[in-house]
Amino acid sequence: MDMFMLEAIKEAEKGLAEGGIPIGSVLVHEGTIIGRGHNRRIQKGSTILHGEMDALENAGRLSASVYKNCTLYTTLSPCPMCSGAISLYGIPRVVIAENRNFLGEEELLRSRGVELHILDDHHCIEMMERFIKENPKLWNEDIGE
Questions:
Q1: Half-sphere exposure of 79 (CA within 13 A, CB side)
Q2: Annotated catalytic residue, options 11, 13, 30, 52
Q3: Is 52 tagged catalytic?
């Protein structure tokens, strides 16, 4: 397993331990993590702090030239909001641990020229599956069901 995805998984596990949704992400620039985060909607009462958004926020304000040389690692396929941010900032590569429990806007990202790598990671699949089964109300609150 890639060391950067392992860091994203640690973020997801941190979110779960805090009582939140287990989705983590790291933003990597030229081999260095410059932003990390996890879904903190529950913890912060936020509508936008998904794992990817939290990682981008924690990276701070950056030049477009930095984003264009980044890879975003995320434990779950990016939703429309997070995919929009990826597109907006021109992040060219996204590594996704799993897309079985939720298939985000992968086709949109591909149509924008974003290179996607799907790992089909069993740990992330099981972690998300268990969370959804045990917390359907929290899960459905965010995805609009």
A1: 15
A2: 52
A3: yes
